[in-house]
């Protein structure tokens, strides 16, 4: 298929379902065809040739508006590509449009629906990205995670999500919420594809062609807050752990993680304080254009003093170090991605409780869809490693995908 | 003096000298008066009340163009304040305009001259910021440092420069060159003022009202590359160390730092690779609007593969950890800020050799002007601490300033 045929097929596929799924905030057919023509004429080939890609509406794309899920910015067009988008273009990927984000990547949802059930949330903040992959609109989509904004929507939409190590991908041209938290990653429908995608954005060749692992040593960790997860989510985690063991993995219950609660608390403080500082302009100049929920969160954040914030940063560094030592005898942690199936809601994007610690620790995290829950919605597991062990995380996720499949 | 009188006095002062110093790329008198009126009418008071501030042209300021020292962006106006600018406004600071940066914070200079000698460079990349403080145009100016872009211009212009710990100040709304390097900081004419300024942007109360230190334990480190410094710079460092000892400091020769060269090399690799990724759009879409020097650097960076980059990141983490252990028995390192006086050049901004390691290590660094060199240009010293020891660095710099003065 030529790039122009690919563009045509993609736009037709989107046109057929977009009025119900509402994954995009901006698609311009002429721009897509022009870009397809450019790729075809220049003969640009690369690791993303043949891929069609949605860009979360927090990333600048030259000539498209960056609205950040907010009414504040109107039709204002970006004058440049963000670094991640530039690397996608250079690798031959065809950019289709801007996918819906919640308001400034916080909790107030956009119009996107879960492709598996239109009454359910697709999760957030990378709502349109996860949904556009689940709906087969695109092969890949960018996301960002401050608390659980990649892994949770991946879980709710039943696609693979990959948040690499903190600072793997340049945030130049990204609207940032949490200075020490926000991590760029991506979505796709299988581990190899999402690894290739993140590998391009991060220029990590070991992700573009990931190695295979033979016998992964997995630590099964329900975390001290397992009681906050639905029975179905816990049962799925158990089932995957058992299947992995049967397939040859060494699966051990994780003993440790005494810093879990301290890390969760630190995350809350850091995110509120950093959010209030990053969105200081919007909070001061356009309070009436912010949702009540975001306005309340930023007010709370603005009241957290600098000492408290720095203390939380310190606790985060200390407790992360302890956890990483405890994790170091395993290839990866196998844990919960979300509290359960996507909730039946269009006013909430669900609970990121099981994602915050991993964002704060800064290591790679995969969501792997593995099955369905009691109401037929997707369920899965999260695979987490220490910072910079992205290649190993990808290898473990590949192994699990092959060993367990989706059922 | 009312805020409006302050605005008037500032604009008059700038008008008198700006045609020779060329510190600004954008000043609009109406905007400055409008902002002064707003501050006066709302009665906004805060730790920056009475301060007039220049913003390096890499930071978005709502309603002003962000040109990044490049012809690429033209008159395109920023739609929002960057996080640092929002915090300055909220603290009652009066923003005067955008100060000249070198092209995208790399080496190609803008038109700014050194206020002490118009034939000399003010240093870079924060050229206009350092010059506007030295010329008494403003009391404070923002800067960013990727290699030596705050400390070097502070040294050349004879003002105090303060680069706080990495990630102290939100980069939201900043044009980023090096994702893991770029650090926001500031300039002023004394330590207490620059600490207050950085303290506001970082929300670090311990910097806004810094504590005093009684008997600092200083490590005098000429580094293994002392032979790259001019005799005058080394003599000044020696003189300051002796004066500090006479004033009661414990000054010890630093033994250690075997990772110096490895850190320098890692910095070069990381900066080139990250720069090529951050400026991927400009490199691809506007190669003819980039200077030869930046284009060459980005070409070089684009050829550094992902493995090499990750290896350099690893070395940086390992060698930084070793250096920090060696530093831990001292309150601060006393070292060179620059190779010597500002060079007699308008085509180069000088050599950041003695700044790169401290940017990579990520701790706070102060430049303290302490005297003049053989041609009458400013000289001084650099004070460096481990990451997050910003309050201690400020206390040591305050002590040195009081004990030694400027002579």
TrEMBL record, chains A, B:
PANTHER family from the UniProt entry: GLUTAMYL-TRNA(GLN) AMIDOTRANSFERASE SUBUNIT A, TRANSAMIDASE
Name of this chain's protein: Amidase
Xref: InterPro entries: Amidase, Amidase_dom, AS_sf
Gene3D superfamilies assigned: Amidase signature (AS) domain
A Pfam match: Amidase
Organism annotation: Octadecabacter antarcticus 307
A GO MF term: catalytic activity
SUPFAM superfamilies linked to this entry: Amidase signature (AS) enzymes
């Amino acid at each position: 298929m030529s790039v122009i045929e690919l563009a045509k097929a993609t736009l037709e596929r989107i046109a057929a379902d977009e009025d119900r799924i509402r994954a995009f905030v901006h698609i311009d057919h002429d721009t897509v065809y022009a870009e397809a023509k450019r790729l075809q004429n220049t003969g640009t080939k690369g690791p993303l040739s043949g891929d069609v890609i949605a860009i979360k509406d927090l990333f600048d794309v030259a000539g498209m508006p960056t609205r950040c899920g907010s009414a504040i910015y109107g039709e204002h067009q970006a004058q440049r590509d963000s670094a991640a988008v530039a690397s996608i273009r250079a690798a031959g990927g065809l950019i289709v449009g801007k996918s819906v984000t919640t308001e400034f990547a916080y909790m107030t949802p956009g119009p996107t629906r879960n492709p598996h059930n239109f009454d359910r949330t697709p999760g957030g903040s990378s709502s349109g990205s996860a949904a556009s992959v689940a709906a087969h609109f695109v092969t890949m989509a960018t996301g960002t995670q401050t608390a659980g904004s990649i892994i949770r929507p991946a879980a709710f939409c039943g696609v693979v999500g990959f948040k690499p190590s903190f600072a793997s991908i340049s945030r130049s041209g990204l609207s940032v919420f949490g200075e020490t938290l926000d991590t760029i990653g991506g979505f796709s429908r299988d581990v190899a594809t999402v690894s290739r995608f993140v590998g391009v954005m991060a220029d990590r060749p070991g992700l573009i062609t990931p190695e295979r692992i033979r016998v992964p040593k997995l630590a099964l960790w329900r975390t001290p807050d397992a009681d906050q997860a639905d029975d179905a989510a816990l049962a799925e985690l158990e089932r995957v752990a058992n299947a992995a063991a049967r397939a040859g993995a060494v699966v051990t219950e994780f003993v440790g993680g005494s810093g879990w609660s301290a890390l969760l608390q630190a995350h809350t403080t850091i995110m509120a304080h950093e959010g209030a500082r990053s969105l200081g302009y919007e909070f001061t100049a356009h309070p009436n254009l912010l949702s009540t929920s975001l306005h309340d969160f930023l007010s709370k954040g603005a009241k957290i003093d600098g000492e408290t914030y720095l203390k939380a940063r310190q606790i985060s560094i200390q407790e992360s170090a302890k956890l990483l030592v405890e994790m170091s005898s395993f290839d990866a942690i196998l844990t919960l991605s979300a509290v359960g199936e996507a909730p039946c809601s269009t006013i909430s994007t669900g609970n990121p409780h099981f994602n915050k610690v991993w964002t704060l620790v800064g290591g790679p995290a995969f969501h792997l869809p593995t099955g369905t829950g009691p109401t037929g919605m997707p369920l899965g597991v999260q695979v987490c490693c220490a910072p910079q062990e992205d290649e190993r995380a990808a290898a473990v996720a590949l192994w699990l995908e092959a060993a367990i499949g989706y059922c």
